[in-house]
Amino acid sequence: MSDTCFSRQFVNLANPRIGAKVTFATDDFFADKARLIDPADAVFIPGEYDDNGKWMDGWESRRKRGTGYDHAIIRLGGPGYVKGVDIDTSHFTGNFPLAASIDACTADSDIPDATVKWTELVPATNLNGNSHHMLAVANDQAWTHLRLNIYPDGGVARLRVYGVMDKNWATVGADNVLDLLAMENGGRAIIANDEHFGVLSNITLPGKGLNMGDGWETRRRREPGNDWAILALGHVGTVEDILVDTAFFKGNFPSHISIQGALVEGGTDTSLPVQSQFWPELLDKQPLAADNEHHLRPLAGVGPISHIRVNIYPDGGISRLRLFGKIHR
Predict the structure, then answer these.
(1) What are the residue ranges of helices labelled H in 205-298?
(2) Helix or strand or coil: residue 135?
(3) Residues facing 85 on adjacent strands
(4) What is the distance between the alpha carbons of residues 163 and 11, in angstroms, rounded to a whole number?
(5) How do residues 175-188 score in pLDDT, each as one tens digit?
(6) Is the peptide bond before 314 cis (omega within 30 degrees of 0)?
(7) What is the rounded distance in angstroms from the CA atom of residue 185 to the CA atom of residue 192?
(8) When you count CB atoms within 10 A of the terminal residue's CB, does the N or C end of the chain come out lower?
(9) What is the DSSP-derived secondary structure letter of residue 200?
(10) pLDDT digits (tens, 9 = 90+) for 217-261
(11) Cβ atoms within 10 Å of 203's Cβ, excluding its own
């Protein structure tokens, strides 16, 4: 399965933007363990050295001179169901681990204590240097922590953990208003017809966008029509307010936007693009402005929805999309 497929279908549970962090490593002499989950792609800087040796963009332990192996512990951004991982050894050529495995557990503390039981998610798997290793995970339990084991030592540029957030909706009252589309609330991107300059899942990230690359942006359309995307809410709910943020998009924001919504009770993610063409309007066609927050009211009478289709005219980029509302039980 490709990285594109994983990243389009699922949330990166190891994204520090939603609170994930590397809490422990047996050794990170050559490269800081925190770089392991940096959202940016790993880079290589020729001739860059620090006090301990060649600077590498990832987590790298020193050369082991005895038995055993190294490992790092990652606290996920929240409890989640892991569907796949990418063990990325980009730029590590003569210093990558020969193999790796991944275990998971559920714990309250940053570093699980010795009483916690770990479950194997990914068995020991051979690695190649300067490569992505996309590995599917078959497990139906929610986890809070992962342990990446490398055999026996070496460097890993990035670990991506793709899955679905497990929000405890029982703690959310019927009158609570929250962002039903937020990544931290289980909202997820499904598909966009174009993600040339920025991936769709960015618009569900918490907080303001960091720059123009931190949103969803399509290429310049050179043919009739408009660009579109489909996303799933974290929970079925009724939308009361909509925020469309075009932060940093100044010469490339869409001229207009509209949103359709539906309560989807059958089919698969693959079947949604065809179905979505006929969903009722949640937001009629509205003009957008550059680098601006647009507070918009949804149309009345739509009722509870589980999915939306976002239409931008004709193309361009948006930074964030918020759907504030109440859950429907």
Answers:
(1) 272-276
(2) strand
(3) 135, 161
(4) 5
(5) 999 999 999 999 99
(6) yes
(7) 21
(8) C
(9) G
(10) 999 999 999 999 999 999 999 999 999 999 999 999 999 999 999
(11) 27
Cβ within 8 Å of residue 298, ≥6 positions away: 239, 240, 241, 242, 259, 282, 283
DSSP state of 274: H
Average pLDDT over residues 90-102: 98
Structure tokens at 103: 């275990």
Question: Is residue 152 reached through a cis peptide bond, with omega within 30 degrees of 0 on the bond before it?
Answer: yes
Residues 27 and 152 sit within 8 Å (Cβ to Cβ)? no
From CA 31, how far away is CA 56, in angstroms rounded?
6
Q: Which two three-digit tokens encode residue 116? A: 């916690």
Supply 206's token pair: 């918490």
Question: Alpha helices of the chain — where are they, by DSSP H?
Answer: 3-9, 272-276
Q: Do the strands 281-287 and 320-327 form a parallel or antiparallel pair, or are they unpaired?
A: unpaired
> Which CA distances in Å does 244 have to 254, 303, 321?
11, 20, 5
Structure tokens at 113: 């204590």
State the sign of the Cα–Cα–Cα–Cα dihedral 25, 87, 162, 68: negative
Cβ(64)–Cβ(70) under 8 Å?
Answer: yes
Do residues 158 and 86 lie in contact, with contact meaning Cβ atoms separated by under 8 Å?
A: yes
Q: Please give the Cα distance from 186 to 143 (Å, whole number).
A: 14
* β-strand partners of 318: 216
* 65: its two tokens: 């001179």
Structure tokens at 9: 């279908």
* CA–CA distance, 3 with 8 (Å, rounded to integer): 8
At residue 28, the 3 state secondary structure works out as coil
Residue 288's CB is within 10 A of a number of other CB atoms, namely 20
110-160 tens-digit pLDDT: 999 999 999 999 999 999 999 999 999 999 999 999 999 999 999 999 999
> Which amino acid is residue 166, in one-letter code?
D
Lookup: tokens for 141: 């339990």
